[in-house]
Amino acid sequence: MSIIDQSGTFNLGDHKVRRLGYGAMQLAGPGVFGPPRDHDAALAVLREAVASGVNHIDTSDFYGPHITNQIIREALHPYRDDLVIVTKVGARRGTDGSWIPAFSRDELTEAVQDNLRNLGLDVLDVVNLRIMFDVHGPAEGSIEEPLTVLADLQRRGLVRHVGLSNATSGQIAEGRGITEIVCVQNQYNLAHRNDDRLIDDLARQGTAYVPFFPLGGFTPLQSSTLSNVAARLSATPMQVALAWLLRRAPNILLIPGTASLSHLRENLAAAGLALPDDAVEELNHMADVAA
Ligand SMILES: NC(=O)c1ccc[n+]([C@@H]2O[C@H](COP(=O)([O-])OP(=O)(O)OC[C@H]3O[C@@H](n4cnc5c(N)ncnc54)[C@H](OP(=O)(O)O)[C@@H]3O)[C@@H](O)[C@H]2O)c1
User: Fold this and answer.
1) Which UniProt keywords apply (predicted)?
2) Residue 19 domain flag
3) Is the CB of 266 under 6 A from ligand 1?
4) Does residue 115 sit within a domain?
């Protein structure tokens, strides 16, 4: 049994995945644009993640663009049967690295085809529609048109399951009228807890919630509470942040991102970190201080 088995499992589409997975966004170059600084290190991180038991990898063809998926293919293809690669569509990159909404039928179809080609797959396991009404956080607006396109691609057999990213509760309800929504991927971590109620609702409904920026994103979390708890438990702050998320709700699937082998090992070891109740209580108040 590997250490990440201790994170438990949860259903993602028709697969049961380990709750500690890996987010591949950090494998592209600075600003998620262009090639990585160290190509071989990127391959090594992916190979070690899967060898350690990770069977859920999050990516998108707009990371790089194309580059992250090409590295995943180079490192891991042919893929293990139990590996679930989740990708997302709904944006494209400008020549300056900007993130541009790409919601037309042609753009979404091309994005699915780009993901298939660059990952070397005939069908994508899970595709999240990345909602872009506001690039920085969920904002209301109908997703009927773009989600109908994804549902058509699902009927054509190019996409197995559909999820939503950067979504409001209203959009999740609207989406469920169009196709089954197997996961929701929104920003959430110890210091950013806007989705508390949504997570509990999705847990009751058996839907996976996948927090992006679980460690705080480009500027990892820093807090004296986190450091103090970590010191008491002889763990690192990042391990405590991940262990808290695992404890927060059973439907949370983790995809911490790193381009570093040592950080990968540290993050995967968080599966074995049991947080005592008093530490959880202290950490629960971190967002109040951050707010
Ligand atoms: N749906 C969306 O809109 C969306 C948006 C953003 C991200 N995502 C997905 O979510 C995944 C996770 O997000 P993320 O990678 O941006 O943020 P994250 O996991 O919160 O944090 C990544 C950052 O933390 C650092 N880090 C990782 N492990 C560390 C450790 N043990 N100690 C110290 N620093 C550590 C990384 O740098 P090093 O490389 O140096 O370790 C990187 O700077 C992404 O890979 C992507 O798949 C989705």
Assistant:
1) Oxidoreductase
2) yes
3) yes
4) yes
Which atom of ligand 1 lies nearest, measured to the CA of 212?
Answer: 10
**pTM attached to this predicted model:** 0.98
Q: How many domains does the chain have?
A: 1
The answer to whether residue 286 is domain-embedded is no
Decide: 94 and 65 in contact? Cβ < 8 Å. Answer: no
Distance, CA 264 to ligand 1 centroid (Å)?
11
Phi, psi of 137, rounded to the nearest 5 degrees: -175, 165
In terms of DSSP H, where are the helices of the chain? 39-51, 67-76, 105-119, 144-155, 169-176, 196-205, 224-232, 237-248, 261-269, 277-284, 286-290
**Could you tell me which of 177, 254, 179 has the C-alpha nearest to residue 214?**
254
In the residue annotation, 63 being an active-site residue is answered as: yes
Angstrom distance (rounded) from CA 8 to CA 101: 35
Ligand 1 atom closest to the Cα of residue 189 is 20
Residue 247: which residues within 8 A CB-CB, separation 6 or more? 275, 280
HSE toward the beta carbon, residue 66, CA cutoff 13 A: 5
Q: Which amino acid is at 76?
A: L
For residue range 104-126, what is the model confidence (pLDDT) as tens digits?
999 999 999 999 999 999 999 99
Q: What is the pLDDT of residue 1?
A: 72
Q: How far is CA 66 from the centre of its chain?
A: 17
Instruction: Identify the DSSP state of 125.
Output: E
Task: From the candidates 63, 79, 188, 209, give the one annotated as an active-site residue.
Answer: 63
Find the CATH number of the domain harbouring 45: 3.20.20.100
- 271, part of any domain: no
